[in-house]
Design goal:
5-stranded mixed β-barrel, Ribonucleotide Reductase Protein R1, domain 1, rRNA-binding, single chain, Rossmann fold, ribosome biogenesis, binds guanosine-5'-triphosphate, 13 strands, Ribosome_biogen_GTPase_RsgA, 3 domains, globular, OB fold (Dihydrolipoamide Acetyltransferase, E2P), 6-stranded mixed beta sheet, RsgA_N, nucleotide-binding, binds zinc ion, alpha/beta
């Protein structure tokens, strides 16, 4: 005899589609379940596949996080904050205007490299011709490092934008990040026409308060295609990355690693450092080397 699906003793598997404080919304089949974790555990991320016990028809307790394929996070001196689990790629949305900061783009790239997540850079608002060429040059720098760039215009060319992005998204779990004003919401709304409705539903279910849209949420387009929208942030701390992880998160460093005079070279002021020599020769951008040193410094300030 088969038991009814919502028998309270059943273990259910689902995907975490939103997180607000220590409250989580889990999609299990066609149900959205309001969930908490046992005790004080709060290491659940959007995108996690979890096992939970139902406590009522639409509520549950998360008992187990299944093994993650990837985990993206950012951190400050005191703690790390999970951004999303199981994503396969990161879309960094930049625009012709307002200007974007290279620091945030490079930090996002480093976070993705460290997590083993692929990156695409989406240059939006290419209809703003006045700043197009200047922005193209800036973005070409990242293309030169090996990151694919895609030019779109969410408002002026919506159909072309969808046509350019859809093939990249299918079968992937993609997180979009971008500074405020780059047009990330405009792009999400094109890809997921019901996004606004979904946000209201999630917000109500998690009781986040009327005007809060500042939580990470996942939209499942089908079984294998997920889109994660994360709130914009001004800072992207990476205190959790170790020196070894940092070195390998800069693809342009790779051919020089192991070629410094000292095997434990920090590439900061050691003599005969292959990385610094490459910077001096113009083969590594000073901006990226400076960020590397800054991240190395942050890594040494970690207090947890
Ligand atoms: N000209 C032009 N404007 C755009 C384009 N895409 C978005 N915008 C405009 O840019 C502004 C910001 O767009 P949003 O989609 O709200 O940007 P966002 O990145 O989600 O910003 P936050 O909501 O602050 O995180 C809005 O006024 C959009 O209408 C575009 O392709 N071209
Ligand atoms: Zn060195």
């Amino acid at each position: 005899m088969t038991k009814p699906i919502d028998a309270l003793t059943d273990t259910v598997t689902g995907t975490v589609i939103a997180a607000h404080g220590r409250h989580y919304l889990v999609q299990a089949d066609d149900k959205k379940l309001q969930c908490v974790t046992r005790g004080k555990k709060s290491d659940v991320a959007v995108g996690d596949i979890v096992k939970l016990k139902l406590t009522s028809a639409n509520q549950g307790v998360i008992e187990e996080i299944t093994e993650r394929k990837t985990l993206l996070y950012r951190s400050d001196q005191y703690k790390s904050k999970l951004l999303a689990a199981n994503v396969t790629q990161l879309f960094i949305v930049v625009a012709t205007e307002p200007g974007f900061t290279d620091d945030l783009v490079s930090r996002s790239l480093v976070a993705a490299e460290a997590a083993g997540v692929a990156v695409h850079i989406i240059l939006n608002k290419i209809d703003v011709v006045a700043s197009l060429e200047k922005t193209r040059k800036r973005v070409a720098f990242y293309a030169g490092l090996g990151y694919p760039v895609h030019e779109v215009s969410a408002t002026a060319q919506p159909e072309e934008t969808v046509a350019a992005l859809m093939p990249l998204l299918v079968g992937q779990s993609t997180i979009l990040i971008g500074q405020s004003g780059m047009g990330k919401s405009s792009i999400i709304n094109l890809i997921i026409p019901d996004a606004a409705i979904a946000v209201r539903e999630i917000s109500a279910a998690l009781d986040t308060g009327k005007h809060t849209t500042t939580f990470t949420r996942l939209y499942a387009m089908d079984d294998k295609t997920m889109i994660i929208d994360s709130p914009g942030f001004q800072e992207f701390g990476l205190y959790h990355l170790t020196e070894g992880m940092l070195e390998r998160a800069f693809p342009e460093f790779e051919q020089y690693l192991g070629k410094c005079k000292f095997y434990n070279c920090h590439h900061s002021n050691e003599p005969e450092c292959a990385i610094r020599t490459a910077v001096a020769a113009g083969d590594i951008a000073p901006m990226r080397h400076a960020l590397y040193l800054q991240l190395l410094h942050e890594s040494s300030q970690k207090l947890y």
